[in-house]
Recover the amino acids of this structure.
């Protein structure tokens, strides 16, 4: 079953629902910005491919893959800065890697020198990447010291402006928490924003409504990004909601809502930059719906992908955001095939190196019980 | 910890003690922010925050939409970033709408991620006011069962004041059960003792006796004291232990008392099955069963929602007469 409404974002001319500042036509952006987003998308892709492989070989008990979400997640994290808060789910490795890592530290020389599209977080990116890898592998040096799996951790480096709250499994529950982080920014008089990713399935929860409603009433600097990959575990959108577009719900909260092609990093970045500027200016939340297609199962090794019709899955693969961007870069002469291949090899080698190092590090110590109370 | 019944000098109403504690802590710490339904202009369903809007402004006294889950979630996120939110549930019963945010998000956050969540939720609770099934409940055991939460249940004005200030300073989620029946009926002096920055287990002997130990909290401590007074005239001396803090639990004073009296009754207003009395009984049986001359007795609400009509409700609430009768049986068994 192909749901055509889900694959055709409205053009700005057709977009009669959203507020005036919703997604305009995509404007061109500097080559360097595209190269930079491409690099992080490739890094995220190689990250997932490596962990998928570890899962297949039995070295990892569970993996939730972000393959296909990279354009949205990398572009969203390309619009924020040190001091902003990131709240992620399990398909947001692109946002985490984009936000955590300074490419000049982890892959020196991979991008031409000069101004970056956003300032990297200060601090030691190599150490951060190693701890992140340890977190995925349940090592003592991971952010949760083995207490929480993969993306279910928090990482704060307040001295570097890193505020990252990881996944809570009760879908939708992160929305009020993210709004609360935005409230803390507002209350402190800071022009910081909180961005939270959520799947289309979580929009059916009560917390989606309660969190977004309070954030709107209080005009909090909060951006909610729905990664609509059309499938919640095995449930298609036709069984999840009855409205035409999820983003139409924004009108009910009195906030702008923008539907955007989630496979187009330029479009996502542009929408995010507008939303971030609004939030920083005290104009309140924005709801963004990034249209995606799920290329992987809910988790690796489950059979949920068998629910997706073959022709629909083929479409999702044809619209793979990394393939599309690499084609655009080479077609327009922004990057050569050789450069793209070099970036792929360097990213893959980097991830292998970090995974191997993390695998050699100690497992959590057994017998030491972490306190249930803060002191 | 003072070991005596509060005296009747310089009395403060229980409800005023709560209001005073909020006001004093908000003056002392500008990160303290109140959130709740109708708490700003209206001052809350019980008028505890009346006048706060004028003093502290609408950024610190925030009316929320009717959204218990959203409010607890927002308080959790804000607390993780350094605020100290205090939520007023209009009635304790309504916290069930925010159950997941509390028991899964807030309660587990520190253990999962070592990020503190200093949130207080005030819970006007309990019966005796003819308020029916959705405005009368005693639901402390839902939360005592959840690791990571602290649970407070003051019976006296002094504890209400001191423990609310400590709860706000504590870096963990604290559930503060304030008994509606006591709001304008209980009055006693506020403590001069310094305010602790942490909620710790507290079990306090509020009346000395040698025949039977009772354990209770909130309104039921007053019922236990009434019963103890009556039974004293019959030669039965009841040692009344009050638990101003239920979780974490300070079991030691209870054990010491039970070793002396060898008889113990647990009195609670919450329904009996799975109530905190069951846990206390189990703890005493674990290590102290040979100190006991009779089985542990629980005096509690039957397994029933609260009825509306006062006579139907009174039939279920543990009264001092019922407590006296059960304690007489306990000592004669």
């Amino acid at each position: 079953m192909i749901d055509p409404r889900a694959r055709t974002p409205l053009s700005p001319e057709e977009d009669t629902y959203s507020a005036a500042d919703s997604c305009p036509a995509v404007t061109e952006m500097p080559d360097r910005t595209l190269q930079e987003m491409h690099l992080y998308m490739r890094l995220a892709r190689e990250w997932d491919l490596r962990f998928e492989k570890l899962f297949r070989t039995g070295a990892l008990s569970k993996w939730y893959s972000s393959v296909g979400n990279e354009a949205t997640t990398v572009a969203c994290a390309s619009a924020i800065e040190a001091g902003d808060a990131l709240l992620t789910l399990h398909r947001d490795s692109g946002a985490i890697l984009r936000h955590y890592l300074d490419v000049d530290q982890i892959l020196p020389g991979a991008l031409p020198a000069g101004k970056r599209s956003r300032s990297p977080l200060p601090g030691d990116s190599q150490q951060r990447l190693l701890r992140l890898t340890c977190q995925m592998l349940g090592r003592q040096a991971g952010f949760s010291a083995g207490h929480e799996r993969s993306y279910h951790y928090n990482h704060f480096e307040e001295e570097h402006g890193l505020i990252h709250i990881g996944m809570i499994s009760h879908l939708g529950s992160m929305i009020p928490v993210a709004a609360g982080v935005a409230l803390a920014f507002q209350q402190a008089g800071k022009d910081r924003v909180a961005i939270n990713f959520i799947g289309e399935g979580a929009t059916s929860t009560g917390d989606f409504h309660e969190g977004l409603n309070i954030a709107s009433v209080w005009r909090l600097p909060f951006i909610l990004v729905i990664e609509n990959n059309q499938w919640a575990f095995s449930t298609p959108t036709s069984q999840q909601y009855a409205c035409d577009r999820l983003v139409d719900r924004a009108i009910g909260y009195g906030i702008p809502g923008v539907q955007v092609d989630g496979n187009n990093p330029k479009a996502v970045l542009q929408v995010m930059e507008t939303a971030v500027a609004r939030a920083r200016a005290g104009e309140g939340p924005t709801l963004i719906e990034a249209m995606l297609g799920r290329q992987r199962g809910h988790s690796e090794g489950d059979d949920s992908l068998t629910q997706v019709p073959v022709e629909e899955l083929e479409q999702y693969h044809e619209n793979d955001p990394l393939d599309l961007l690499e084609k655009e870069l080479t077609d327009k002469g922004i990057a050569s095939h050789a450069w793209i291949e070099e970036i792929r090899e360097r990213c893959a080698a980097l991830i292998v190196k970090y995974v191997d190092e993390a695998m050699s590090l100690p497992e959590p110590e057994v017998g030491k019980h972490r306190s249930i109370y803060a002191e | 910890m003072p070991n005596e019944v509060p005296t009747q000098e310089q009395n403060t109403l229980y409800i005023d003690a709560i209001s005073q504690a909020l006001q004093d802590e908000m003056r002392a710490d500008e990160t303290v922010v109140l959130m709740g339904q109708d708490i700003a202009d209206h001052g809350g369903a019980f008028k505890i925050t009346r006048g706060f809007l004028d003093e502290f402004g609408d950024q610190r006294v925030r009316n929320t939409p009717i959204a218990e889950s959203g409010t607890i979630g927002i308080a959790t996120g804000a607390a993780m970033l350094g605020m100290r939110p205090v939520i007023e549930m209009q009635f304790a019963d309504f916290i069930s709408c925010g159950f997941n945010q509390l028991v899964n998000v807030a309660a587990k956050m520190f253990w999962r991620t070592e990020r503190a969540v200093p949130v207080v939720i005030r819970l006007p609770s309990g019966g005796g006011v003819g308020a029916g099934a959705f405005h009368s409940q005693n639901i402390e055991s839902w939360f005592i069962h959840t690791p990571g939460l602290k649970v407070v249940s003051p019976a006296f004005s002094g504890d209400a004041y001191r423990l609310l200030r400590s709860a706000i300073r504590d870096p963990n989620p604290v559930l503060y059960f304030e008994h509606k029946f006591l709001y304008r009926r209980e009055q006693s002096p506020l403590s001069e003792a310094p305010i602790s920055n942490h909620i710790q287990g507290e079990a306090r002997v509020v009346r000395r006796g040698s025949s039977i130990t009772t354990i209770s909290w909130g309104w039921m401590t007053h019922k236990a004291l009434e019963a103890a007074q009556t039974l004293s005239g019959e030669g039965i001396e009841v040692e009344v232990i009050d638990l101003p803090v239920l979780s974490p639990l300070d079991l030691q004073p209870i054990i010491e008392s039970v070793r002396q009296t060898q008889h113990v009754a647990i009195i609670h207003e919450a329904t009996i099955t799975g109530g905190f009395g069951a846990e206390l009984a189990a703890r005493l049986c674990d290590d102290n069963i040979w100190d006991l001359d009779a089985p542990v007795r629980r005096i509690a609400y039957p397994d029933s929602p609260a009825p509306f009509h006062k006579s139907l409700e009174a039939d279920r609430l543990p009264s001092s007469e019922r407590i006296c009768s059960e304690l007489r049986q306990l000592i004669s068994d």
User: Anything to note?
Assistant: Chain B has a mean pLDDT of 96. Chain B has two domains: 12-188, 202-332. The radius of gyration of chain B is 19 Å.
